[in-house]
Specification:
Blueprint (H helix, E strand, L loop, with lengths): L15 H5 L6 E9 L4 E2 L5 E8 L10 E8 L8 E6 L7 E2 L4 E8 L7 E16 L9 E16 L8 H4 L12 E10 L14 E4 L15 H18 L15 H29 L2
Parallel strand pairs: 2-9
Antiparallel strand pairs: 1-3, 1-10, 3-7, 4-5, 4-8, 6-7, 8-9, 10-11
């Protein structure tokens, strides 16, 4: 069975209403694929996938949704993994002092396999425009804007090891501009009628039609941060893995009993996530 597990440690704790009150405009949010690049890497047991979101604390206002796909390059229509996540929280998988959130994931299908691969991601955001009908009611039109990015990479024995710190350094980071997307929030429309915006929000973002040029070099990672991210990925991967030979000490494989126990522990957060996603799906159909 294919093993590809995303680290969902996000907590649905903050609404856009509480965040927007302390934010001035315009605001720029940027989503960048930090790793991998269009390059060749050693076929490691757990290939890391790292996405950075600059100005992460502003993402709740635009109801940022990220969809991920991982597949063999020769068969992109049959993804090994496909999932999506709605961000409405200030708690990414890892958060640094520069207000950058990191989303962490991994694939084990690359282990000891020489092959070409494809990792793609698509972001979707909410955008509002003022309605000219009955301006006294402060009505808005809500639309969804999406952008897709992808990267091809290969695994080959003897190639370089994945290096997150090197991927963010000068001379390398600029090569990722095609794998990023920037969003400019020009203003918020306040006090909109109940039910106009998902989650009964009373504030609605206005997104510029001309996106800023991405600046992936705005994300810099030192050795300590890179090590923490890789350790988090390895620990999570090893928790679910049956092969613990490559795992950090104290982590690793799960018996059927521990799998069942972990499922029960995750049920509460999973229910909250499902309710949120259900509401968003419902809103998109009406």
């Amino acid at each position: 069975m294919a093993v590809f597990h995303f680290c969902w440690w996000l907590l649905l704790a903050c609404s856009s209403s509480t965040m927007a009150a302390d934010i001035t405009f315009p605001q720029t949010i940027e989503v960048d694929l930090i790793f991998p690049h269009n390059d060749t890497y050693a076929p490691v047991p757990f290939m890391p996938f790292v996405i950075a979101i600059q100005n992460f604390r502003s993402t709740g206002m635009i109801l940022l949704n990220l969809a991920y796909n991982f597949s063999a390059a020769a068969n992109p229509g049959n993804p090994i993994f496909s999932n999506s996540k709605q961000f409405q929280s200030d708690d990414p998988d890892y958060f640094d002092k520069d207000d950058t959130g990191f989303v962490l994931s991994y694939a084990s299908e690359t282990n000891n396999v020489e092959k070409a691969w494809l990792f793609s991601w698509e972001l979707e955001i909410a955008n509002c425009t003022r309605s000219m009908e009955h301006p006294e009611l402060n009505l808005v039109h809500v639309s969804r804007t999406s952008q897709r990015r992808q990267v091809y990479f290969t695994t080959k024995h003897g190639a370089q090891q994945p290096n997150l710190m090197a991927a963010t350094q000068e001379g390398t980071c600029g090569n990722r501009s095609s794998s990023g997307y920037a969003i400019n929030i020009t203003e918020m429309i306040y006090n909109i009628p109940e039910g106009q915006y998902p989650n009964d929000g009373s504030e609605c973002p206005v997104i510029s039609d001309t996106p800023p040029t991405p600046n992936p070099c705005g994300v810099r990672m030192n050795n300590d941060t890179a090590s923490q991210l890789l350790y988090s990925i390895d620990t999570e991967a090893c928790f679910w893995s049956n092969d613990v030979s490559h795992c950090p000490l104290g982590t690793g494989g799960m018996s059927q009993e521990s799998v069942s126990r972990r499922t029960v522990q995750l049920s509460a957060s999973g229910l909250m996530w499902a309710v949120t996603m259900g509401w968003l799906i419902y809103m998109s159909t009406i």
